[in-house]
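ok so for the tutorial part 2 we go from a plain amino acid sequence to predicted structure tokens. step 1 is just haveing the sequence, like this:
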Amino acid sequence: MIPASAYVAPSAVLCGAVTLGERTRVLHGAVVTAEDGEVWIGDDVVIMENALVRGRSRNPTSVGNAVLIGPHAHINGATVEDEVFIATGASLFPGSVAGSGAELRINSVLHVNSKLDPRTVVPIGWIAAGDPAQLFSPDQHEELWRVQAELDFPGTVYGVPRGTSMRSIMARQTEFYGAHRNDQIIDP
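step 2 — the prediction. this is what the tokens look like for a chain of 188 residues:
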């Protein structure tokens, strides 16, 4: 659903069960896709150039009101509460929640199944992981892994146990994304 007050750039893509809020702006090259799960976007949201917002069956995506999603950001099966700032290149993974007023700065990550408290700032290039999320600088891989290992990335994202071969994962992924081979462009 696209309200009359919303704007979707001619080169942006909306696919599947996507609902945009009032005055939402989806800029050039952005992709909002509900592959097999819904996407709800609140009011007064700007999705900037080349951002990806993806809904998933087990993790629909919900974006609150007054949210900025920066260029090249990646929101995948996440919940974004009101007044969140998501900078260029930031990534939010399935099952994650960015609390109201949080800031995810350039190239930061909110890991799978992690909950970022309201008004928390994730610095440039840092990773937030856990519930509640702890903040890790890029050089803290061992400390991050101790938290990250329990978050079940392969189970949440691919529905497989850790240790499943990439051959098995990619056979499933190519089948899943092949569902769009016969898609057709619909004139508005």
